[in-house]
Design goal:
- The chain is about 45% helix and about 15% strand.
- It is α+β, with helices and mostly antiparallel strands.
């Protein structure tokens, strides 16, 4: 599962872990990646290119799903994102 955290959120919270615990992140699932990057191939490579182009604004983390739920237990991913 890919997590996008704004660099502003990281600075405000005092670290990536604290920013995720505060809820300042976006979840990128395979289905969401395919929908968001239709002009590309809708792959993880497109997400990595998006990150590369926005490196000063956000941080993208590839975390196991269990770790994401451990950091933010109340995370609910809409069914249309899965």
């Amino acid at each position: 599962m890919f997590i996008e955290v704004s660099n502003d959120e990281i600075r405000k919270a005092g670290g990536v872990k604290k920013a995720i615990q505060a809820g300042g992140f976006n979840v990128w699932t395979e289905k969401r990646i395919k929908g968001a990057f239709r002009k590309g191939c809708g792959t993880v490579q497109d997400l990595r290119l998006y990150y590369h182009n926005n490196v000063g604004r956000c941080t993208i983390l590839d975390l196991p799903e269990a770790e994401v739920y451990e950091l933010y237990p109340s995370l609910i991913i809409p069914a249309d994102f899965l």
